[in-house]
Design brief:
Structural class: alpha/beta
CATH architecture of the largest domain: Alpha-Beta Barrel
Strand order of the largest sheet: 5-4-3-2-1-9-8-7-6
CATH superfamily of the largest domain: Glycosidases
Largest sheet: 9 strands, parallel
Strand content: 15-25%
Number of helices: 18
Distance between the termini: 45 Å
CATH class of the largest domain: Alpha Beta
Number of strands: 25
Bound molecules: alpha-D-galactopyranose
Number of domains: 3
CATH topology of the largest domain: TIM Barrel
Shape: globular
Oligomer: single chain
Length: about 675
């Protein structure tokens, strides 16, 4: 079954509305409703006074209508009686200020008092509903860490000390790892250690990095506490919580190991011409977090949200296009926030499946159309997406470290990764994300974008990948720090200097007015010729080659002639190093060359168009505001019609059973690579 539905908040509406809700859900093809996310106050209006009667009615009603229930643990926002009696539950900011009530998610999920009350509620829900036939999954909390990513109060201080004891064992090792000889920071006991609260000037970088690790672990621990209760009640029911794509406060690689399936909330800005790339990157990250297994789009909007400075409506078809993008890239369901548009509260201007404009609206027509289409496509559930040939490393520790204060220049890790991802997306190359220590041998090329923190294991893994035939492209700031946020022993890149055949003498970032250009024509072999050109951003490094060839050099300026891009055959593979912060066209130039040399295939889809294969189906999606014609012989999976040429109106989608003679990916890889390069040089 494909999930289709959304957050359902009947507690915010009079009972009279519920029957209409269910009838309209059936009309829209809804298969699952997420119930109870913010219902704590209705389920337990006073301490220990539980009221499940209304929820019984809701769940029974959905079940009778054949709609499954993804039941939330309702712990995403504690009710006022709890915080009034126990203010220690309210989260504390780095400045020491406590949050107040009147919104949502103002609590510290690690607070022992909060845990007592939350776990008690979860226990009651588990006891009552764990064997209800409507239950298809448990939905723990909601977007952990979104409102309050970190807590800095006394209880978190105590938990941090416990975490540090487990990590370091002795105070000597902690003092050593944190370099506390600097600025008189040496600790005489674990009790003296504090959370990474506000400090007058630069905080200890190792302490700050450990607080990110601890904070991420603390969010996971709160999830784990509730999941354990649910699991004990009925191990057959899958448990998840909604992730938020590349969300800095939580290391989702770790968290993905804990859930039964990963799910994501994703809200591309409809007004952003690159919103589809934003979406694709998150779909690919979720598929990677899921280890290639299906994942779920737990929340998206049918149209506008309420939380941007300008909340644009989706254009006709845009919601459908983005939904199919998720299905094509591995989602086994499309869910929305929310079922019925709110009449009150802070989200009243947020779109919903059933808008306040009612069933005469375009949104409703699109919602019912998609529901019925997905009903017809449910055979795709569980099928794998075609294997990606390229991976980009995504590393939360590097993200935390590279954006710390007192670095050589301000960097934006996600923006840098996005730039390289976008260039690959525009080239029609499907991408996985991976960790630096993952087995990368299945990928023809791997990108390490400012993977700043590298362990010895990670460096050995990356080196082995290249020696065994991989094409590794690393960019500035890779391997600058060790896992304790200290300078890498032996200098930037550590042992990877051998892999790349270079040494980095100095980093040399510069302001925008002083940025050089690079230009190079590369002739690697008869088939592989290309050009890398364009301005570079803030980042530059002074690189000395010790075996690599400088394939692109900096143009006029103080770095003139210094290597900007180097290439180093190492074992059976190639180590590329990019010391410059390339802009998108420069990234694309280089990637065309790397892809051609590594034999990476491309869909050659025009800009703004995606073609992705999943299971037996090919999805062609036009995210542009202009029509497009594609030569894609096959049979339309929605209409059954045979096609040779697909004409896609703006935001239109084709789902095809491809003709066997022209299945994407069936072409000779080398020929596809040559195409890729020609497209670049034409
Ligand atoms: C998040 C939350 C939802 C809702 C939406 C609005 O995704 O999980 O409860 O607030 O944002 O876009």
């Amino acid at each position: 079954m494909l999930w289709y539905g959304g957050d359902y908040n009947p507690e915010q509406w009079p009972r009279e509305v519920w029957a209409e809700d269910i009838a309209l859900m059936q009309r829209a093809g809804v298969t699952v409703a997420t119930v109870g996310v913010f219902a704590w106050a209705k389920l337990e209006p006073a301490d220990g006074a539980f009221d499940f009667a209304w929820l019984d009615d809701v769940i029974d009603g959905l079940h009778e209508a054949g709609i499954g229930v993804d039941l939330a643990t309702a712990t995403a926002s504690p009710p006022p009686w709890l915080t009034a009696a126990h203010p220690d539950v309210l989260a504390v900011e780095a400045s020491g200020r406590r949050w107040s009530i009147g919104s949502r998610a103002h609590h510290n999920p690690g607070s022992p008092t909060f845990r007592y009350y939350a776990d008690r509620l979860v226990g009651k829900l588990a006891e009552r509903y764990a064997h209800h036939p409507a239950l298809v999954a448990w939905h723990v909390g909601n977007e952990f860490g979104n409102e309050v990513p970190r807590d800095y109060g006394a209880e978190s201080a105590a938990a941090f000390r416990t975490w540090l004891r487990a990590r370091y064992g002795t105070l000597e090792r902690l003092n050593d790892a944190w370099g506390t000889a600097f600025w008189s920071q040496q600790y005489g006991s674990f009790e003296e250690v504090q959370p990474a609260r506000d400090t007058p000037t630069f905080p200890n970088p190792a302490q700050a990095l450990d607080y990110e690790r601890f904070g991420s672990d603390a969010l996971i621990a709160a999830y784990r506490a509730e999941a354990a209760i649910l699991r004990a009640a009925n191990p057959a029911i899958p448990i998840t919580t909604n992730f938020m794509g590349p969300f800095k406060p939580a290391d989702y690689w770790k968290w993905a190991q804990e859930v039964d399936f990963v799910s994501d909330d994703c809200y591309p800005d409809p007004l952003d011409p690159e919103g589809h790339i934003y979406g694709a990157m998150r779909r690919d990250l979720l598929r990677s977090l899921a280890g290639g297994k299906p994942w779920l789009l737990m929340e998206q909007s049918t149209s506008a949200v309420n939380w941007r400075p300008i909340n644009g409506a989706k254009r006709p078809g845009q919601m459908r296009a983005l939904s199919y993008q998720a299905i094509a890239r591995g989602a086994d369901g499309i869910m929305f926030f929310q079922w019925r548009q709110a009449a009150r509260g802070a989200e009243k201007f947020h779109s919903a499946m059933l808008p306040s404009a009612g069933t005469g609206s375009r949104i409703w027509r699109e919602v019912t159309q998609l529901g019925h289409e997905l009903g017809a496509l449910e055979g795709i559930a569980g099928t794998p997406v075609e294997p990606a040939q390229v991976a980009i490393l995504f590393d939360w520790e590097s993200w935390w470290a590279v954006e710390q204060k007192a670095m050589p220049a301000r960097t934006d890790y996600l923006a840098a990764v996005t730039e390289w991802y976008s260039a690959l997306h525009e080239l029609g190359v499907l991408v996985d994300f991976a960790r630096p220590t993952d087995d990368l041998s299945g990928y023809r090329a791997v990108l390490a974008v400012s993977t700043t923190v590298l362990s010895d294991d990670a460096m050995h893994n990356l080196d082995r990948y290249v020696r065994e035939g991989g094409h590794l492209v690393a960019t500035y700031l890779t391997g600058v720090l060790d896992p304790a946020a200290g300078l890498m022993s032996g200098g930037p890149l550590g042992s990877l200097t051998e892999t790349f055949g270079i040494e980095i003498d100095e980093v040399s970032p510069r302001p925008p007015v002083d940025q050089p250009e690079i230009r190079a024509r590369l002739g690697l072999s008869v088939e592989v010729v290309g050009e890398v050109a364009g301005p570079v951003g803030v980042w530059a490094e002074i690189v000395r080659t010790t075996g690599a060839s400088a394939v692109a050099r900096y143009g006029p300026g103080d770095l003139e002639g210094s290597p900007a891009i180097t290439r180093h055959p190492h074992g059976r593979g190639i180590g590329w190093y990019v010391s410059a912060e390339l802009e998108r066209p420069g990234c694309a130039d280089l990637l065309r060359i790397v892809a051609a040399e590594a034999g990476v295939s491309s869909t050659n889809a025009p800009p703004g168009v995606e073609i992705v294969r999943r299971g037996d189906l090919v999805f062609a999606i036009n995210h542009r505001i202009t029509p497009v014609r594609l030569s894609l012989p096959g049979r339309d999976a929605l209409t059954g019609a045979a096609t040779n040429v697909v004409e896609l109106a703006p935001f239109d989608v084709a789902v095809l059973h491809p003709s066997s003679s022209d299945e994407p990916g069936a072409d000779d890889d080398r020929a596809r690579s040559a195409d890729l390069l020609q497209a670049s040089t034409a």
